[in-house]
Amino acid sequence: xxxxxxxxxxxxxxxxxxxxxxxxxxxxxxxxxxxxxxxxxxxxxxxxxxxxxxxxxxxxxxxxxxxxxxxxxxxxxxxxxxxxxxxxxxxxxxxxxxxxxxxxxxxxxxxxxxxxxxxxxxxxxxxxxxxxxxxxxxxxxxxxxxxxxxxxxxxxxxxxxxxxxxxxxxxxxxxxxxxxxxxxxxxxxxxxxxxxxxxxxxxxxxxxxxxxxxxxxxxxxxxxxxxxxxxxxxxxxxxxxxxxxxxxxxxxxxxxxxxxxxxxxxxxxxxxxxxxxxxxxxxxxxxxxxxxxxxxxxxxxxxxxxxxxxxxxxxxxxxxxxxxxxxxxxxxxxxxxxxxxxxxxxxxxxxxxxxxxxxxxxxxxxxxxxxxxxxxxxxxxxxxxxxxxxxxxxxxxxxxxxxxxxxxxxxxxxxxxxxx
Length: 420
What we know:
This protein has 420 residues and is α/β, with parallel strands linked by helices. The protein is 30% helix and 25% strand. The protein has helices at 4-11, 13-21, 30-37, 43-63, 74-79, 83-95, 110-117, 129-141, 208-216, 304-308, 312-319, 355-364, 381-388; strands at 100-104, 121-126, 148-152, 165-168, 171-172, 204-205, 220-225, 239-245, 248-256, 271-276, 280-283, 298-302, 322-323, 331-333, 342-352, 367-374, 395-404, 407-415. Helix 1 (4-11) crosses helix 4, helix 1 packs parallel to helix 8 and helix 6 (83-95) packs across helix 7. The chain is flat and about 65 Å long. The N and C termini lie far apart (56 Å). The relative contact order is 0.08. Mean pLDDT is 90; it is low at 174-198.
C-alpha cells in the first residue's frame, strides 16, 4: 500500500473481498496466495491486500480482535498506542469530565478509538493523508464515525480553543541521544544506561516544547512521550505518569489540569507509576533514595514503571526495605511484604560472581531450569547459560547477576509464589 488510490481500492468491494479471503492467511503461504489471487485481481491490489493482512496480524498484539477489522500503515502499527494503555488514558480523561478533545498527531487512530469508546467526541488531526484515511476507515469499521472527526492538517496550525482537552502524540525521530540523556545510570535510572532508547524531546515532531505550550492553553491535556525521557526535561507544572502493561514499560504521559468535582486531577510536579492491567497507581512522595544495606531473606525487583518514575524509594518505604547497592534498583528486606509494585524473590545464596562455583552449585542441587536476570552486570545471561551447561533436572532457580555494595555478585533464589 503506497498511496491513497491503492488504499481506496482496498475499501472498495473488490478490495474488501480480498481482505476477507486473507483474514486467516498464513504468511508462510504468501507466494502461493499472491500467484493465485493475481489470476483474478490486479497485482497492485493483491500486494496491498497481502500487506494489509500482514499488518493486521502484527497489530493483534496491540489491538486484539479489533485488528482484524482495522486498517494500518507500517509506521502506524509500530507507533500506535497499545489498546489497554489507550483505554486507561481515555478513562482518566473521561473521569475528569472531558467530553471533547483534539487528538493531535493521531496516526492511524488508536487513541481516538479509545477516547470515542469512553464517550469523548474527538477531532483527530494528522498531516499524513494516508494516516488520516486509515483513521476514517477505522472509525467506520468500529462503528465510531459519529464521534471521530478527521482533519488532515499541520497540528501546529490547528485551533484547539473550545475543546475540553488536548492530546498530543509527537513523532519520535531516530536521533542520537543528547549528552544529558545518556548520562551514567544510577538507581534513579534503573541501574543501567539507557543509551539510544532516550531521544532528545526537542527532536520530536512537533517538539516537546511546542506540545507543552499547546497543552497549557487547554483546560486539560495529556502528552505522550518516550518513557526514557530525562526528568529534567519534564515541565514542573504537570504530572508525569509512567505506564507499564504486563511488566513492560510502554510510555510516559505528561498531564496538565486540575481536579474537577472531586475527580483525581494531575498533581503538578508529581511522578506516578501505573501498572496495567490491574491499574495499580503509585504517586511519588518525593522521597530520597533509600540507604543501602546487606541482602536479606527477600529481594524485590521493582516494576519498570516504578524505576522510570524514580519511585524505588516509595516502594522501599512500603516494604521496609533497603537497596543492595547505591546504584542498583534492587531492594531487599528481611520479611515478605506484598506489593503490586515489585516482584519478590526468596533468596537462598549471596555469592561473589564465579562461573565455576555457580556451575558446581547448580549441578549439586540438580537444577535444570535457570531464569537469569541482570542489573549492573556486564555478563550476558545467554553467554552464562551456555557456560553453565545445565542438565535435565526439574528443579528451577532464579539467578541475579548484579552488584552488592559495589562488588560483582550472584544471588540465587526463587519467586515468592514458589516459596514453601
